[in-house]
Amino acid sequence: NAGVMQNPRHLVRRRGQEARLRCSPMKGHSHVYWYRQLPEEGLKFMVYLQKENIIDESGMPKERFSAEFPKEGPSILRIQQVVRGDSAAYFCASSPRDIYGYTFGSGTRLTVV
Amino acid sequence: SQQGEEDPQALSIQEGENATMNCSYKTSINNLQWYRQNSGRGLVHLILIRSNEREKHSGRLRVTLDTSKKSSSLLITASRAADTASYFCATDVGNTPLVFGKGTRLSVIA
């Protein structure tokens, strides 16, 4: 079992470009969570998805950010028109149910230049 | 919103010593979890303690939970240089994603 796979590991975007972050959950896990982490900070919840459904997006900015978890394929976190403040590490986690510990991916480090 | 707060923010100890980190939270929980993060990596789940449990062990880790004080502690015994990492507590209040604290940065000096 390969665990939670995130790609790319590092992503550099110019201001105004789009960033697409991918997350493949562990096999058998139907719950996916995206978190953002700034240097020396904890993780801030962004969005919680199950297959084809957004369950909770209360931590995700209303503009420029979107997420999906299609029936087939990985979960995608999309950031449009990136700004310098979007630079952070973005972590995806999955769980088989919402009462178990999460398995995290290694993250995508987004740098906006 | 529900949040765990770790204390201390940073801890430096000698190899072989015990390390104790604390976590306080605000409202009732279903369970509390501890995670570890090595620099530049994702979080690794260490241990989960349910609200009806008071203590749990896993190898060199011991976790306690005091629901009356809304606090938990993580003890790492006989620490090693490889234990150097950030440690986070996360609270599960049910039907919502885990909320993480800002973590304790542990440095174990050989």
**From N to C, what is the helix and strand string of chain A?**
EEEEEEEEEEE
Counting helices, strands and paired strands, the structural category of chain B is: mainly beta
Classification by helices and strands of chain A = mainly beta
Average pLDDT of chain A, to the nearest integer?
93
Q: How helical, in percent, are the residues of chain A?
A: under 10%
Strand content of chain A is: over 45%
Number of helices of chain B: 0
Compute the gyration radius of chain A: what is it? 13 Å
Biggest sheet statistics of chain A: 7 strands, mixed
Tally of alpha and pi helices of chain A: 0
The best one-word shape of chain B is: globular
Helix content of chain B: under 10%
Q: Tell me the total number of β-strands of chain A.
A: 11
Distance between the termini of chain B: 39 Å
Biggest sheet of chain B, open or closed, and with what strands and sense?
6 strands, mixed
Beta-strand segment tally of chain B: 11
Poorly predicted ranges of chain B: none
Q: Give the overall form of chain A.
A: globular
Average predicted local confidence, pLDDT of chain B: 93
In whole angstroms, how far apart are the ends of chain A?
A: 36 Å
Oligomer: heterodimer
Topology:
The complex is a heterodimer of chains A (113) and B (110).
Chain A: E1 5-7, E2 10-13, E3 19-24, E4 31-37, E5 43-50, E6 53-56, E7 65-68, E8 75-79, E9 88-95, E10 103-104, E11 108-112
Parallel strand pairs in A: 2-11
Antiparallel strand pairs in A: 1-3, 3-8, 4-5, 4-9, 5-6, 7-8, 9-10, 9-11
Chain B: E1 5-7, E2 10-14, E3 19-24, E4 31-37, E5 43-50, E6 55-58, E7 61-66, E8 71-76, E9 85-92, E10 99-100, E11 104-109
Parallel strand pairs in B: 2-11
Antiparallel strand pairs in B: 1-3, 3-8, 4-5, 4-9, 6-7, 7-8, 9-10, 9-11
Task: Describe the protein in words.
- The complex is a heterodimer of chains A (113) and B (110).
- Chain A has 113 residues and is mainly β.
- Helices cover 0% and strands 50% of the residues of chain A.
- Chain A is built from no helices and eleven strands.
- Chain A has strands at residues 5-7, 10-13, 19-24, 31-37, 43-50, 53-56, 65-68, 75-79, 88-95, 103-104, 108-112.
- In chain A, strands 2, 4, 5, 6, 9, 10 and 11 form a seven-stranded mixed beta sheet that branches.
- Chain A is globular, with a radius of gyration of 13 Å.
- The model of chain A has no long low-confidence stretch (mean pLDDT 93).
- Chain B is 0% helix and 55% strand.
- In chain B, 35% of the residues are buried.
- Chain B contains no helices and eleven strands.
- In chain B, strands 2, 4, 5, 9, 10 and 11 form a six-stranded mixed beta sheet that branches. In chain B, strands 1-3-8-7-6 form a five-stranded antiparallel beta sheet, with no helix packed on it.
- The radius of gyration of chain B is 13 Å and the shape is globular.
- Chain B is mainly β and 110 residues long.
- The A-B interface holds A 4, 6, 33, 35, 41-45, 48, 56, 91, 93, 98-107 and B 30-31, 33, 35, 41-45, 48, 88, 92, 94-103.
